[in-house]
Amino acid sequence: MFISESDKQRILTVAEGNLVKVISEFVTLTKKGAELIGKCPKCGHEQGLCVSQSKQIFKCFHCNQADGNSAVSWMMKVKDKTYPEALKALAEIFGIILTEPEQKRKPSPKKTKKGKHDIDSFCAKMLEASGLTFDDVTANIYDAGENKTVFRKPAFFRGTVDSTGEIINDGDDVIIAYYDLDGFPVKYEIKDKKNKPTGKFREFFRVRWQYPEEHPGKDGKPSKYKTPYGAGTPIYIPEKVRNMYKTSQTIERLYIQEGEKKAEKACKHGITSIAISGIQNLGMNGRLPESVIKIIERCGVKEVLFMLDSDCFDLSHSLKVGDKIEKRPRNFFYAVRNYKDYFRSLKNREIYVEILFGYILKNEADDKGIDDLLTNSLAGKEDDLLQDIEYAVNEKSHTGKYVQLHKITIYTDHKLEEIWSLNSYSAFAQKYKNILREMPEFTIGQHRWRFNEKGELESTQPVEPDEQYWEELISTDRSGRERKNYEFRYGRCFTFLHNRGFGRYRRPSGDYNFVRIDTPFIKTVETWEIRDFITEFTKMIANEEVLEMIYRGGPQYIGYDKLSHLPFILPAFEVPERDKHIFYFAQKCWQVNKDGITEFDYSNIPHQLWIDIKKDFQAQRLSEPIIKINRSSDGQFAYTITNTGKKCHFLKFLENTSNFTWRKQQLIAEDKPDIIITPDELYDNTLHLIAKLCAIGYMITGAKDRNTAKAVVAMDGKQSEVNASNGRSGKSIIGELFKHVNTAVYINGKTVDVVGDKFVWDEVTEKTRTVFFDDVRPGFDFELLFANITGDWNINYKGGRKCTLPFTTSPKIYITTNHTLKGEGSSFLDRQWVIAFSDFYNDRHKPLDDFKILFFDEWDFEQWNLLWNLLAECVQLYFRFGCIESPQERIVVRRLRQNMGEDFLSWAEEYFSDTQRKNIRIARKDLYDSFLDRFPAQRKYCTATLFKKRIQYYCSWKGYKFNPQKYDPVTGIAFQFDKDGQPIDDDKSGGVEYFTIGDENYAAGFSIDDGQDMLTNSIFD
Q1: Where is 558: in which H helix or E strand?
Q2: Residue 120, class by beta-carbon neighbours within 10 Å (0-12 exposed, 13-18 middle, 19+ buried)?
Q3: Is the pLDDT of residue 816 over 90?
Q4: Which residue from 519, 467, 424 is spatially nearest to 62, judged by alpha carbons?
Q5: CA-CA distance, 16 to 18, in Å (whole number)?
Q6: Residues 938, 685: Cα–Cα separation, whole Å
Q7: What is the largest CA-CA distance in the chain?
Q8: H/E element, 303
Q9: What's the rounded Cα separation, in Å, for the pair 771 and 791?
Q10: FRET pair for 136, CA 20 to 30 Å: which of 73, 202, 437, 716?
């Protein structure tokens, strides 16, 4: 954001003395004595904010988070704006029109000759702007096919990629191909969603977007480049370097730069350079790429020079109060340090090179990199740059006209930090004083500072007398000379820490963690972090002797035992509400209720939250919803996926997994006229989708209600043999979703023993929001989770600790299974929210086949943003519609089959295939003996009583009537009922019990829906 110096002075002049006017734009102020008071935007306290017109200061005495002495301070500290954003906001308040920035004109590059390349493409224009042609970036590529030929191909060419990462040749972005030292395309191995190698390889390339703002990165900011996920960071090798390697030409000095185009431009003018895709991307797996080592060995490289752009010392342009101002310079320091360490490690292979790094000096033309310098300031005299580098290498200060170099072969990390003034916080602040003095306060390390009106650096929270954790003691030795000694003061130290947000947080288990509150966030900290906090602060404000005392004392002064005297902190956590949920993102929050989704910033949050809950994602609300769902007056649902929603991979995945008619749809597409999809079948698909969306919303919301407490159970809708696993239907992907968006604990359902393993909940803490049981075994006893679903969680931690998580703050449960869960009765059914998955995805067809990228890991900003918007809508749907069950017919059928068992079903199907055995009375003993004759091993598992239940299950499964003679043939109502109102269908005479299996030839209609009623009847309880 550009604001000229003259505009800045106009804004500051007008804003001076107008603090009340600015604050009144955001807060209603009322007179109280000589001051004005109002609601604090930071903590929400109704009369916490105090504003003094005479002194031109503001402060909240309730939270101490809102304080300052200027309109700029208000905008930056309270409204969370950067300095340029604060000035722009003030300009709008005071009606100041800002001047537009002057556009710097660069020399027009020579036009590329028209040939086989599209001279009007963005690729051609980008190369022209740097004084390059397609011939300059053309490589000799080896064809490993049958012909074994060499052909020429530009490494930069026109194209783009689709959402699946596939190259589209008619796009107008730039594709940058990578080739190794032998001229083969660089390839990388594709990995699956569990990050395991698949044995499949793709050619590596990078995309340079023509319009970066249309391709935001995961931080929401415009992104110039895209690299395939999981592809690593190979080195870009220009053709000139490749030829020198193949012919073993000597390379005295090898240059390393960030950016492929820079390397090509440098090589064109005799500066032998390779490129990395980012300043941190030189190493692969903690070591130099083998291709770099090969160049050094074969070409006899004596020096390596890592060249950075001229902005490598600049602070971030979007600094806000609370941001660590040294973050960007420190990233460059880390990059150079790692570069140094990588090349130093070559000594282990007896390879010795001189290690240098440098950067382009700032100039009036604002040339950032080598390519800018060669194209602009040195156009027509490009050789001057190489000569200037040679001069700087041999000059004592290593300073040239265009470059500054540093020989760092023997530099320590501390010596390297000095280049960026990172070795001293005060030196760093002084280095950037012209920028930092305009900020109301800034953070270096863990401490906040400011420059006062005198231009002196001071803490924004200076040490008060009762906080000074050292005391100067003066004594006299025998010779009469005074000596100064320093003693550590524990009580003052604890006061100092507590006033800066440190304290102990008592956990439900009775032990405690050390935490720090930086409103509204709470962070768990280790003792060494507290010790570092004090050490950093001491460096800034005290003399060397005090610092030495801290170093000597170490854990003795600030160790775990001593810090146990810190006061306990009782955070004001958010109380979950049944009709409201808040999503927390990097800069903004979304509040969801049944009526809508609103966005606000953290200054409007009155409560505190664990910092883990905040997602480091720049979420953006979409103007159009993802999906529109309506329910008619008769309770029928209908949905429409919007044009925006059609881009959302996860919604399409949910729709596919809810499609139980997909096989019929394929047959209809193949012109099978006898295949019909009924409206009821299509409506079932709709219910399956809406059930999943609402269930996801339920799992994400924090509030819990005993009346609606359920475990979400995801199961296959396709009927299969008991113990036969279909799987691969996508159930676990929703579990993975919860791991990414919630604090979740994963439990392997195949190995878990809820009863035998007393530490089964060992990873569950008060922060856990979801417990994900993945792929539980057949016969998993769901009743063991009843207490966890509707009551408190009793947890035994390893080490002897125990705790109870109250129901209101305990996690929710998500279970995936290829089978039905073990259990019967209303208590069993009431605690489940079952969602069913079709076999649209299976062993042969996976989501990767449809979407071409791995969910979560390979998503770009757009897909993540679509997901977060979809999740907000899921929460809203749950608030609107509550628990929407999947259609139960498939689930009931699966449950009946599992309750019977495959052995029984095999016998029954064969036995009752004889129509003469239906519609007649058969002694139970005869049927039971027939079954045991076929499966004698079942005698120990299937008692006579259980056998009767299985006969009844079989009747429900087949649509038969059990003992139909006990029911009225016209009404279907039983003739007799027990005291609980349940039908009596026992058929006994002469001490013998009889079973009758009635089919459609017997009276009394009986449908599969009766199976659901049968499962809840007390006869099975």
Answers
A1: helix 555-558
A2: exposed
A3: yes
A4: 519
A5: 5
A6: 39
A7: 123
A8: strand 303-308
A9: 15
A10: 202
Q: Which ranges of 259-317 would DSSP assign to H, the alpha helix?
A: 260-268, 290-299
Nearby residues of 35 by Cβ (< 8 Å), 6 or more positions away: 50, 51, 52, 53
> Which residues are bridge partners to 835 per DSSP?
714
Nearest-angstrom CA–CA distance, 810 and 576: 12
Residue 951's nearest CA partner among 963, 939, 940, 941 is 963
The C-alpha atoms of residue 528 and residue 535 are separated, in whole angstroms, by 10
CA distance 53 to 58: 9
Alpha-helical segments (H) within 742-807: 786-790
Beta bridge partners of 58: 51, 68
Closest among 956, 967, 969 to 1010, alpha carbons compared: 956
Which residue shows structure tokens 């609300």?
A: 621
Q: Find the distance separating the first CA and the last CA of the chain, reported in whole Å.
A: 70
pLDDT-derived band of residue 217, with 50, 70 and 90 as boundaries?
A: confident
The neighbour count for residue 239, using CB atoms within 10 Å, is 20
Q: How confident is the model at residue 250 (pLDDT cuts 50, 70, 90)?
A: very high
Q: What percent of the chain has pLDDT over 70?
A: 94
With contact defined as beta carbons under 8 Å apart, do 30 and 39 qualify? no
> What residue type is 993 in one-letter code?
E
pTM of the entire structure? 0.77
* pLDDT exceeds cutoff 60 at 453: yes
- What proportion of the chain, given as a percentage, has pLDDT over 90? 58
- Picking from 329, 324, 317, 432, the residue whose alpha carbon sits closest to that of residue 85 is 317
CA-wise closest residue to 130 among 366, 379, 358: 379
Separation in Å, CA 223 to CA 280, 372, 722, 978: 17, 20, 51, 73
Q: Listing from the earlier edge strand, what are the strands of the sheet with 521-525?
A: 502-506, 512-518, 521-525, 609-610
Structure token pair of residue 116? 């086989």
Distance (Å, rounded) from C-alpha 356 to C-alpha 403?
Answer: 12
Strand arrangement, sheet containing 167-177: 156-161, 167-177, 205-208, 225-226
For residue 438, what are the CA distances in angstroms to 2, 93, 142, 324? 16, 20, 58, 16
What tokens appear for 830 in the block?
């009431």
